[in-house]
Amino acid sequence: MKISHCAMLLPVLSATNVATGFVVKKNARPKVDHQRDMIEALGKMGRVDGPFVVVLGDSITQNARLPDTVCGMPLINAGISGSRTSTFIPFAEEMVAQKVKPTLSVIALGVNDTISGYQTDFASAYRLLIDSLPKTQLLFVTSAPVDLSKPVAARINVATLQFVSAKIMEAANSRKARLIDLSKINIQSQDGVHPDAATYSLWI
Fold first, then answer.
1. How far apart are CA 41 and CA 95, in angstroms?
2. Per DSSP, what are the bridge partners of residue 178?
3. Distance between CA atoms of 99 and 3, rounded to whole angstroms?
4. How many beta carbons lie within 10 A of that of residue 68, not counting itself?
């Protein structure tokens, strides 16, 4: 069994929260903690004995009720709420460092990169993420349609969204990898970005 050295950080992080007086209120909305979520995902992958599939994504992936297995292999949901492509670069580097090698890595990122105000060059970050991942099969996923009339999607820059989708397709084509184009699927959303309960199954 592989034991992630990052998993050893969990007790330390918990102790730090107690020491600083951080208290989780009952029924409070959990705080976004990229480091915690990455440690948990790395731990899950490290405990798999054999081939597995991992999905790198944002809150849409994290909240999806993905099946436990696909094609007979364990499926690891590594969705992290609020994440952009650049968020996963150190995660990918850690996968290599820990010799965690999935059979297939699914990259379902990009929508948070389209929020107005972010300055990171998506194309460069996307290439670096791909190059930083373990050398294995890749599957690229474009963003699902967004409804710009709704509150969450109102922050999205339309031109950037089109640019991001084009770069994802370009990356798949240049690497002769599979592509799932979610823009062709009729997914409904209450907030403009996240699939509603009725159509989440289409996304999955």
1. 10
2. 139
3. 11
4. 8
* Three-state SS letters, the chain: CCCCHHHHHHHHHHHHHHHCCCCCCCCCCCCCCHHHHHHHHHHHHHCCCCCCEEEEECHHHHCCCCCCEECCEEEEEEECCCCCHHHHHHHHHHHHHCCCCCCEEEEECCCHHHECCCCCCHHHHHHHHHHHCCCCEEEEECCCCCCCCCCCHHHECHHHHHHHHHHHHHHHHHCCCEEECHHHCCCCECCCCCECCCCHHHHC
Name the residue type at position 134. P
pTM (two decimals): 0.81
pLDDT value at position 32? 62
- Please tell me the distance from the alpha carbon of residue 103 to that of residue 107, in angstroms, as a whole number: 13
| Gap between the Cα atoms of 154 and 148, Å rounded | 5
Q: Are 109 and 56 in contact (CB under 8 A)?
A: yes
Nearest to 44 by CA among 18, 80, 81: 80
**Distance (Å) of CA 79 to CA 16, 20, 45, 190:** 25, 28, 13, 20
Total residues belonging to the chain: 204
The predicted pLDDT at position 22 comes to 33
In the sheet that 137-141 helps form, which strands lie side by side, from edge to edge?
Answer: 69-70, 73-79, 53-57, 104-108, 137-141, 178-180
167-195 confidence digits (pLDDT tens): 999 999 999 999 999 988 888 898 999 99
